[in-house]
Structures are given as structure tokens and as C-alpha cells.
Amino acid sequence: MTKDTIKVALIGNPNTGKTSVFNQLTGLHQQVGNYPGITVEKKIGACKLNETTKATIIDLPGTYSLNASSIDENVVIELLLNKKDENYPDVVVVVSEVENLKRNLLLFTQIKDLEIPTILVINMSDRMQLKGIELNIPFLEEQLQTKIALVSSRKNIGIEKIKELILNYESLPNLPCLNASSIDPEYFEKLKKTFPNQLVYKLWLVITQDVNFLNLERNEMESSFTKSHADLKQLQQKETIKRYQFINETLKLGQKIDQSKATDVRAKLDRVLTHKVFGYLIFFVILFGIFQSIFDWSSIPMDYIDRSFADLASYAKMNLPAGEFTNLISEGIIPGIGGILIFIPQIAFLFLFISVLEESGYMSRVVFLMDKIMRRYGLSGKSIVPLISGTACAIPAIMGARNIENWKERLITILVTPFITCSARLPVYAILISLIIPQQRIFGFLSLQGLTLMGLYLLGFGMALLSAYILNKVLRISSKSYFVVEMPSYKIPLFKNVAINIIEKTKAFVFGAGKIILAISIILWFLGSHGPDATFGNAQNIVSKTIKSTDSNYENKVSEYKLEHSYIGTIGKYIEPAIKPLGYDWKIGIAVVSSFAAREVFVGTLATIYSVGNHSDEEATIKEQMKNEIREDGSKTFNFATGISLLIYYALAMQCISTLAIVKKETNSWKWPLIQLLFMSGLAYLSALLAYQILN
After folding, report:
1. Over the stretch 274-333, which tens digit does the pLDDT of each residue have?
2. Do residues 302 and 315 make contact, with C-beta atoms less than 8 angstroms apart?
3. pLDDT at 150
4. Is 135 helix (H, G, I), strand (E, B) or coil?
5. Where do the domains of the chain lie?
């Protein structure tokens, strides 16, 4: 009898299509979180196997072997060794791919030695004819002591076979493929005699990976079995050689490759896309196209959302009973939610393009292409992955730097990644660019707004490289590094994978940043609707001395006076002298300070402040409110000089407390995040000051 819920660990090398298999099995029934105590992301999904049984599937980080070289890879080992872990699997599904079966089977044979029921999935079977590959599945199953599912996640072939094998996991053989202990029989025999109740290969992993979930006496392990680092490495190499000897012998009869039948164009594409001239040109054109599209394609849904929430706020104010609760809804909650949802189209399009680049296999070519440039600035080709990931969010990007073994390169990557324009900056850029840059086209097809957006991305990337160069010269950390990157096959992006990624990332923005924005919007509404002294409550009498109550502008003047003398107005006036040289008034100052929690809060803050200060019968959109805002001298608040100053400030400033927390966790010190905060904030202030003073 099978369990009602079967725990499944999905494991495989990077670029084997493991995530595609996970998405096909679970669909949108996924939860994303972090492993306890560490910031490595984990995905857990639910899969219905039949009417009475379901599977809980955990998608583990990609790893090449159980000889871990990074924190991500160590997660796999710790789960497989720790039976007390709530996610310890009943069965392991190892995902391989048909073109790199030899390399993928190394990990498979190691997991088999742990004597956990293991299924082998051979993915991308639709490419077998293209590559001239034939597989003898019965022979491979016999030699590898397992059951095999031949799968094409792209064409949804073989997914039901995986479910069937998971359902019947108890019938799978638990025998290892080969006897790994023969690399040093005397050493392993001694291990077995000393710990007769433990699996020898688990003991070997405990010794080599510096983990211990077997409740062993550590002193006994260290005194009797600890070898020098060089000896352990030598034994690991012997183990790897022995495994590949077994794999080679198995594939000689189990796999046939006829190169004459292959119709591959990968080499031809690689010559163009990684060319020392055309490669960079193509990458630049792709980036340019992305930024043009983000503005052009998202403008219609953004305008619709903006107008809809303005109408909703007006409707609430006109139809609900007058009072504090109605004001909270129309001036706090509705503008706050509108300040979140208006940017969904742009963020969705950004993740669409990133997902397509990753799914197609092009991103690995970018890593290879950028390695030579990165080296000049004290980084490696591996640094480009966190830097590009930083266009989505700096937090997972900084965590992604764990794959960089060299500590100096990793530290520099962590410190400069926040300069990269993330999706949190996009709402600020979008609203300011639309206010100060005209909707004009150069040569009939180049959007001036799109060019400005691309310029801001290039500014962030350029500043990251310049900072990396300085840090490389300043930091006295000696180290050596080697760059290895795998070039996966080109693939047409799988629609389901792209769609799930867009939905998950957009949800993360709405429910992650959205909660912060909405909470701050409500707090700001309260601070803007109440005052510290009688001046606030006596606003009508004071204003009526300068303007008649019958004047059409009377209500707005009262609202503006109240806002200026509210709690938030008092705070804003206090900080105004420090920000006035940058071209900001006290309202912008409040938005800048509150956006330290999350950059996206900037627009939501202004939407709330302007809603509190506007009591006209018809609510204006966020964009209209900012466009119509004027200074005491009658000039526009958001003029060209102020707009550019703000854009430069947000391009360079460290306006994200969550990023600082992650940097502290990754560097295990407050020293680096504090240096990062002071340097980036100081640079942003001086650059914005210079820009405003020159342009004003």
C-alpha cells in the first residue's frame, strides 16, 4: 500500500529541464520559500497521482554531484542525509537530459549509493532524432538498478509515466549501481566495522562534506577517519573516475549516437551570438528592444488601471457616508492599492523577457560573452548572472553570488549588485519619465522614453562596474579563480514555464512589496489627516481670512493648509532644508524617506499625500496629480531638472532595507552593508545635487 502523500525530491544538474518537469507535475500548485536558517530559495509543489494519492514535490537547487562546492549544492546533501528533515523524501527523481546523459549519471549513481528509492527521468526525448541518439531503456534500467521515464517536458510526453513510477516507488530496487568503497577498501571496511548500523556512503559524505546528521560521535570520527584535505580530494577524484568508468561501460551498450543523422545548428548560432563584435552588438539590440517594449506595450493597461482607481476613489468619496472611514478608503487604501497594481504590466513584461532569455539558453551565452569584460573589473563571468538577475531583484541576485567560489569576487559582486536597476526602481522610473520626457520618436521608431529608460539601466550597470574596479584595487584579498560555464542547447521557450515564472514573480511583487506599500499608505494617510496642534483643526478659520468660503478653490486651499500642518507636513518641513538643493519639496522628501522600506513606495506615498491634499469632486490619476503639482512660486514641482535629479538619485541610492539585511547575512558582518549604505547614499545625493544645479 502506498502512502496518501508521497514525498518526492526532484534533483538534477543545471540545464536538464528540471524546472520544466516540476512545472508540468505541479502547475501553479507551488509554494516558494526559504530553507530554515538560510536564504536559499526552495520550491514545493503538489501533484495528484490518482484519486487517493498525491505527491509533495520539492524542487532542489541544481547540482552536478554530491561533492558540493557551493551553499546551494550543500542543500541537496543535507536533505538526503537528514532523515529527521520534514522534507526527507520517500523517493528521489533524478532529472537528466538526453544530450548530456554521461555527465548527468554521475549524480544519479551517487544518490543510488544512499539506497533511497530513485527514479531516472531522461528529459528532452524529442531531441533524440535531431541528435541521432538511440537508447536501450531495458538495458539501462537493468544496469542502473532503477526505472526510467523517457520524457519531453516541452511536449508533455512521459509525465504520466513519472507519476506512475512515483506511485509505485516501493517496488523500486534500492541496490547501488556500483561499489564505490573499492577506491580504498581498507578505509571503508574500517568505517563499516566501527559504525555497523550506518550506510558506508553516508559516512563518507559526512566526512567529506563537513555535515553530520547521523548522530555520530564527532571526536571518534575525527580521530579515526579524518584524512588530510589533499588525501580526501584524491579519494574523491578516484571515486569520480570509478563512476565514470561504470557510466562509460553502461552507455557503450545502452546508448548509440550517430552523428551523421544529427541536424544541429547550435555551433553555427554560437559562432554568431558569442562573436567578439557581433555578440555584444546583438546583446545590446536585444536589451534595447526590451526597454522599448516595456514602455510601448504597457502604456495602455497602465493608463487603464490608473484611471480605474482614480474613478474608484472618486466613487467611494461621493457615495459612502462622510467621515474618517470614507476618507481612509478613498485617500489611503484605494490610492495605495492603485500605486501597487499600476506597475503590474511593466513588471510582467520585464519578467517575460528575462524568462524567455533564460529558457532559450541565450543567457548562458551572455555569461560567456561578458567574462572578458568582467575580469577587467575584478569580477568573473559568473558575476554576470547575479548582475543580470539584479534587474529583477537585488535580494535573490545577491544570494545567487554563492555560486562564486572566490571570496573576493563574491564580495565585490554582492557590494555592487544593488547598483543594477531592479524591478522596484521601475515604478519610479516609469512615472517620472512619463512626466518629464515627451512621447516623441526618433527616426520614426525609437521611443525617447524607452531610450531614457535604457540609459538609466546602463548608468546602473556602468556604476556597478566602476565600483567593482575600485573595490578590486582597494580590497587586499589574495585569491585565484577559474571560470567554467556550461552552454545548454538552444530551446524554444516553453510557454508554461514562462507563464508560471511571470505569475510567480508578479505575485511576489504584489503580495511582497504590495503589503509594505499599502501599510505605509495607511500610515501616511493618518499622518496626513491629523495634526500635532490646534493649527491643523482650525484650518478653515485661518484660510477664510485670505479667501472667501464661497470661492471654488476654498476646499482645496483648506486641504493644502491641513496637509502642510499635519504630522507628515511637520516631518517634511523639518527635512526640507537638506533636500531643497536637490529640487525636492517636503512632499517629495517624505516619499524619498518612506521609500527606504522599498523603492516602489515612492509613487504610492505621493499618491496618498496628494489624495489627502486634494478634495475636489473628481479624483485625478496619480500621473495627473504629480503633473499638476506646483510650488509656492507657481512653477511645476516635477520639472525637467527635478525629474532628472530624482531619476539619478534612485538609480544610485541604496533605498532598500531588505537588501541591506541580505548583505549582512551573506557577509556575516554589519561592516559591509553599512559601507554600502553610506557610499551609495552619499554618491546618489551628490550626483542628484549636481544634476539639479546644472539643469535648473
Report:
1. 888 888 888 888 877 776 776 677 778 877 887 888 788 888 888 888 887 887 888 778
2. no
3. 92
4. strand
5. 5-171
- Per DSSP, helices labelled H in 154-275 are 159-167, 185-194, 200-209, 218-225, 229-254, 266-273
* Residue 210 pLDDT: 60
DSSP-assigned states of every residue in 22-73:
HHHHHTT-EEEEE-TTS--EEEEEEEE-SSS-EEEEEEPPP-S-SS--SHHH
pLDDT value, residue 37:
44
Collapse the DSSP code of 353 into the 3-class scheme (helix H, G, I; strand E, B; otherwise coil) and give the result. helix
**Euclidean distance between CA atoms 685 and 692, whole angstroms:** 11
Rounded Cα distance between 359 and 355, Å, is 6
User: Rounded to an integer, what distance in angstroms lies between the CA atom of residue 454 and that of residue 461?
Assistant: 11
With a cut of 50, which residues of the chain have pLDDT below it? Answer: 1-2, 34-39, 212, 217-219, 222-223, 615-619
- Taking a C-beta distance cutoff of 8 angstroms, is the pair 608, 521 a contact? yes
Q: What's the CA gap between 182 and 178, in Å, rounded?
A: 9
For residues 112 and 119, the answer to whether their CB atoms sit within 8 Å is no
Q: SS3 for 391?
A: coil
Given a contact cutoff of 8 angstroms between Cβ atoms, the answer to whether 582 and 688 are in contact is yes
Q: Could you tell me how far CA 634 lies from the centroid of its own chain?
A: 43
Residues 11, 93 contacting (CB under 8 angstroms): yes
Length of the chain in residues, anyone?
A: 696
Query: What class does CATH assign to 5-171?
Result: alpha beta
pLDDT at position 367: 74
Q: Where would I find the beta strands (DSSP E) of 571-639? A: none
pLDDT recorded at residue 36? 43
Cβ-contact 254, 139 below 8 angstroms = yes
- Cα–Cα nearest to 130, from 244, 303, 317, 262: 262
- Count the helix, strand and coil residues of the chain and give each as a percent rounded to the nearest 5: 65, 10, 30
pLDDT computed for residue 648 by the predictor: 94
